Amino acid sequence: MDALLLLVAIVWGSSYLAAKTLTDTVGVTVILSLRFLITTLALAVIWLIWNRRRPGRRETMVGVILGLTQAAVLILETHGIAGTSATNAGLIISLVIIFTPVTESIVLRVRLPRTVFVAGVIAVVGVCLLVSGDGFATPTLGDMLMLAAAVVRSIHVTAVSALTRGRGYSALTLTLIQSAVCALFYTLSDYHGVLQAVRSFDTGEWVGVLYLGLACSVFAFLVQTWAIQQTSASRASLLMGTEPIWAVLIGITIGQDTLAPLGVVGAALIITGTYLGLRAETRHRTPPMPPTRDTFRRLPELQPPASSHTPTDPSLIDVPADTRRPYTLRNPQH
Fold it and tell me: What ranges do the domains of the chain cover?
């Protein structure tokens, strides 16, 4: 299971280089159109086999709204990838791990631990160093678009949480609706370019589009959904949170990206900041395990005298106030 989640992180980390390679030969909207047409077709087949539950009007509207916000994210992200390196793109977009809990805390009016904000400062400093090159310089347009994509993605993830919490919606159905909306939006934006690409794409370009549509979208969705049902969302988030590490390794080794010394320091700070932020936010929203009899047996000082047959008085146990505080944040989606 852990290996599959790590594979998802590797696939996502490699998606930036795959998209970057395609943007050198064809327009952004054409790439996104073909990617989501393939994704929608594959998810529709899976839906027909596994689900077939028709969504209600509200569920459909939620899927359409989330599809539009997802389309906005990917437009910014793919244009950003076209204007920067695959390494920079993978690192900057990982800031969504920091931005999402902050966005959720604003919307849900929940206080976050100070560590999340410290981690955010570390990650932002890392971005400044990453885009500085050999010295402090103005970020490229691609870097700024990736930063905007991270902000909009955090809003999208928060919207997913707010609109679907406690509704019992099907994750597969919602994902299918979002993919269909994205496919329709991108195709209508440049349908002439899409038709021309279908006629002119060579084998390598089709492999790239199929990889983005099937591996980075369908495979990742199915594995993530299955794995979270088998393990904790916290463990899944931490394993898939290694995505920026793989983006750097793949960008440098396969994409032949280069990082100046300041960029290396910046990359390390981004990875450190996002990891610390993810750990802190995960601990914050995971309720502690209640004390059990085994806990008392392992603590001799809390056991009653041998002659007593009464159970230990819970009021004598010093339970920190934080463990009695309700937690309202949901597990964020990636």
Answer: 2-286
